């Protein structure tokens, strides 16, 4: 198992109100699997992604990433797990403004201690892989939404992580561009990268091989995707 | 992640908000210019005072009669040539005791004329006061005794009366008396409001007998206005001053517990007191400069806090892709330091330029901008950046990744 959670609980307290965003989630994802997570708004999908992305800490329960329990890790150790094992793709792309595509993609490599010349070479190669070899120096505001999301995917992959976490990656894209992005993810999955994707659309979930449904912070269904695209 | 990467990131961030960056550094620019200007002027003033004192000779004791009339009696204090002789005779470390009379005279050569100071002195006067004779010669003991009509002239008098012509052997008149120039004194330069080179030196007897005007005041015929006492190199100047005072006390029968009718100063003492005043002055200036730097630093801290808030999502993203606490802290620290050092360099240019421009206004002040000053400007501004950047940088570094990423 590349990702495994056990009885994961996240409780938020806001203004005297207690919300169980996650209420005992136990899931295992095997190496290379392509998983889609679905569920109504507020069902805890993003909360779950943030936990396994080591961006936030659970109230209780355990998380293993590539066989390593991340519960007891320090901030800096978690940063290293994010850098080496995980790649993130966000709904809003989250590219740095006024920073070229190449430099955006090279960002994780800065924190991996890679030399300037190698950073550049790897970032350019990664951009070529997602079909942006001719947009290397474009700033985010000089790229279409789909292109920006492809830059973000290149950034997520540049450190060669084993897990890609994508929270509604097509949420801000039209259906045609969404298909392009999903094709790229499918290709990555075939290369052995484990992908966990959150989506509201059945069409998008259909690209995955396994589908998990959340409701009120719990898993209510977990089954293989039948009519896979 | 290395410092070079951080400097690039910092410069990019600062360029993004260029106008704001410039305005932010204004405090540092003003603070550093103030520091540089103050230090340069303080050092210049100190150099000036030291030069002045050294031009007189630091082994010198100057004795003057108390003008308010010797507090022990109703009479004015008096010093005479005999007092000078006694000092010379009785204190072995004295290399020369040179009396001086002075008076302001009108000197005329051809159609040039000028008011200047006349010093009536003995041949030791030149050496005792650290004068050089650049051309010509000093007057002799025989000339001094006979009251020869000869004079040494200062550089200012030379320029006014004779221009570029070699004055030695030429004649001019002082209050009507013709005097022959036998030597030219080397220029000492001006100083705190007085021009040391604006003088002529003649033998005492000449000053007394041959030049009209009331040189003499009340008192014995050999009364003088000042006695310069030069001590041998390495003498203890505190002792020296006491020795001179004791000789005069015994000559005028002034007891230990009575106030003397004369005052003796050691130039070394003057130098030390001038230095302590200047030291306090410099600390005051440094204090003013430090306050402006603190104000500048608070401006930096303020803008860095704004910058951290504005870039919270960027910080979250950097953390998501693997930035550690120290990477984020360093990024913002370097940004604060780069901002301050740029301000410091601009301040250095302004303060240094200002200080050098002051040379035109104060030509005698030895004002210089050295490597030390440059290092001071850069060091101080980097330290301000470090000091005031630390809090915002720590604040950025301690953000929780998901909160930062979700920041609106
Ligand atoms: N930082 C927070 N503080 C308080 N409550 C929170 C916080 N983050 C999430 N929640 C709550 O936790 C629950 C789960 O939120 P989450 O963002 O995981 O939902 P989601 O499934 O991703 O929804 P969507 O499909 O709309 O993105 C919601 O009720 C939400 O209000
Ligand atoms: Mg969500």
TrEMBL record, chain B:
It comes from the Bacteria. Its main location: membrane. It is found in: Cell membrane. InterPro entries: ABC3_permease_C, MacB_PCD, Macrolide_Exporter_MacB. Residues 288-399 form the ABC3 transporter permease C-terminal domain. The chain crosses the membrane at residues 21-42, 283-309, 330-357, 369-391. Residues 21-246 form the MacB-like periplasmic core domain. The keyword Transmembrane helix applies. It is a multi-pass membrane protein. Keywords: Cell membrane, Membrane, Transmembrane, Transmembrane helix. Belongs to the ABC-4 integral membrane protein family. This is ABC transporter permease. It comes from Pacificimonas pallii.
């Amino acid at each position: 198992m590349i990702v495994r959670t056990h009885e994961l609980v996240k409780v938020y307290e806001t203004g005297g109100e207690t919300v169980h965003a996650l209420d005992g989630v136990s899931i295992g994802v095997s190496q290379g699997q392509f998983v889609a997570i679905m569920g109504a708004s507020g069902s805890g999908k993003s909360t779950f992604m943030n936990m396994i992305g080591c961006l936030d800490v659970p109230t209780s329960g355990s998380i293993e990433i590539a066989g390593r329990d991340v519960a007891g890790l320090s901030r800096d150790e978690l940063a290293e797990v994010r850098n080496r094992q995980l790649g993130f793709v966000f709904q809003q792309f989250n590219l740095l403004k006024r920073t070229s595509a190449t430099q955006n993609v090279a960002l994780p490599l800065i924190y991996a201690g890679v030399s300037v010349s190698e950073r550049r070479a790897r970032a350019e190669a990664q951009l070529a892989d997602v079909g942006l070899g001719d947009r290397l120096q474009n700033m985010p505001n000089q790229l279409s939404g789909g292109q920006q999301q492809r830059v973000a995917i290149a950034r997520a992959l540049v450190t060669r992580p084993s897990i890609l976490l994508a929270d509604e990656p097509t949420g801000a894209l039209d259906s045609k561009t969404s298909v392009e992005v999903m094709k790229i993810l499918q290709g990555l999955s075939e290369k052995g990268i484990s992908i966990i994707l959150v989506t509201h659309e059945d069409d998008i979930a259909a690209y995955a091989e396994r589908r998990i449904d959340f409701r009120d912070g719990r898993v209510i269904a977990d089954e293989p995707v039948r009519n896979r695209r | 992640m290395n410092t070079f990467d951080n400097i690039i990131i910092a410069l990019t961030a600062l360029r993004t908000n260029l106008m704001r960056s410039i305005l932010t550094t204004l405090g540092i620019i003003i603070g550093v210019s103030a520091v540089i200007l103050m230090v340069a002027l303080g050092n210049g003033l100190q150099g000036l005072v030291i030069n002045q004192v050294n031009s007189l000779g630091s082994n010198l004791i100057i004795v003057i009669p108390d003008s308010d009339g010797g507090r022990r009696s109703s009479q004015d204090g008096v010093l005479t040539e005999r007092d000078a002789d006694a000092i010379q005779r009785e204190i072995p470390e004295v290399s020369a005791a040179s009396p001086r009379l002075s008076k302001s005279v009108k000197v005329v050569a051809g159609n040039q004329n000028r008011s200047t100071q006349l010093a009536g002195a003995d041949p030791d006067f030149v050496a005792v006061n650290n004068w050089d004779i650049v051309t010509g010669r000093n007057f002799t003991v025989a000339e001094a005794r006979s009251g020869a009509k000869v004079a040494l002239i200062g550089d200012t008098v030379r320029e006014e009366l004779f221009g570029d012509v070699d004055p030695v052997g030429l004649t001019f008149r002082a209050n009507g008396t013709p005097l022959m120039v036998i030597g030219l004194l080397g220029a000492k330069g001006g100083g705190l409001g007085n021009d040391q080179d604006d003088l002529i030196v003649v033998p005492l007897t000449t000053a007394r007998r041959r030049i009209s005007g009331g040189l003499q005041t009340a008192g014995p015929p050999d009364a003088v206005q000042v006695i310069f006492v030069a001590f041998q190199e390495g003498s203890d100047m505190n002792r020296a001053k006491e020795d001179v005072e004791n000789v005069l006390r015994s000559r005028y029968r002034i007891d230990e517990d009575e106030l003397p009718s004369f005052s003796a100063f050691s130039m070394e003492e003057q130098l030390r007191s001038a230095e302590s005043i200047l030291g306090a002055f410099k600390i005051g200036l440094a204090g003013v400069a430090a306050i402006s730097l603190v104000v500048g630093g608070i401006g930096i801290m303020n803008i860095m806090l704004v910058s951290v808030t504005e870039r919270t999502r960027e910080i979250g993203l950097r953390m998501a892709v693997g930035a550690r606490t120290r990477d984020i802290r360093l990024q913002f620290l370097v940004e604060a330091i780069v901002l301050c050092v740029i301000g410091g360099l601009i301040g250095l240019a302004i303060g240094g330029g200002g200080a050098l421009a002051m040379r035109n206004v104060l030509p005698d002040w030895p004002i210089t901008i050295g490597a030390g000053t440059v290092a001071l400007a850069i060091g101080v501004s980097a330290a301000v950046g470090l000091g005031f950047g630390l809090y915002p940088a720590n604040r950025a570094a301690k953000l929780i990744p998901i909160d930062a990423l979700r920041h609106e």
